[in-house]
Amino acid sequence: MSTSKMIVLKSSDGETFEVEVMVAEQSQTIKHMIDDDCADTVIPLPNVTSKILAKVIEYCKRHVEAGKSEDKPSEDDLKSFDAEFVKVDQGTLFDLILAAN
Q1: pLDDT at 98
Q2: CA 23 to chain centre
Q3: For residue range 52-95, what is the model confidence (pLDDT) as tens digits?
Q4: N or C: which end of the chain has fewer CB within 10 A?
Q5: Residues 64, 73 contacting (CB under 8 angstroms)
Q6: pLDDT exceeds 60 at position 18
Q7: Distance CA 64, CA 72 (A)
């Protein structure tokens, strides 16, 4: 059994998150950093708090898992997840949008 390559993301408040590269690469910015060998052992994300980064990672994991699952969830299941994901207060939604950029 092979293990997935991992990378560490560091939030603006210093918390670190170890995630699979394929999860982190859901972010085009991070993907380009990895592709260009700009990603050392830790990728700092100075504009993203740990609270928001945890939610972004949750979102990316769900989409990666949906794409590689043997019994893929229906598109409706993923749409339902996405709809629930954005049911947050306006400030959190704004922070999620900023993190997506």
Answers
A1: 87
A2: 6
A3: 999 999 999 998 888 776 666 667 788 888 898 889 999 999 99
A4: N
A5: no
A6: yes
A7: 11
Confidence of residue 3 (pLDDT cuts 50, 70, 90): low
Half-sphere exposure of residue 21, counting CA atoms within 13 Å on the CB side? 13
Q: What is the pLDDT of residue 40?
A: 67
Segments making up each domain of the chain, as ranges? 6-100
DSSP string, 10-32: E-TTS-EEEEEHHHHTTSHHHHH
Contacts for 6-10: CB closer than 8 Å, 24+ residues apart:
7/34, 7/39, 7/43, 8/41, 8/42, 8/43, 9/42, 9/43, 9/45, 9/53, 9/57, 10/42, 10/43, 10/44, 10/45
Phi-psi sector, 7: left (phi>0), alpha (psi -120 to 50), beta: beta
Q: Which CATH number fits domain 6-100: 3.40.190.10, 3.90.550.10, 1.10.1060.10, 3.30.710.10?
A: 3.30.710.10
**What token pair was written down for 50?**
């740990």
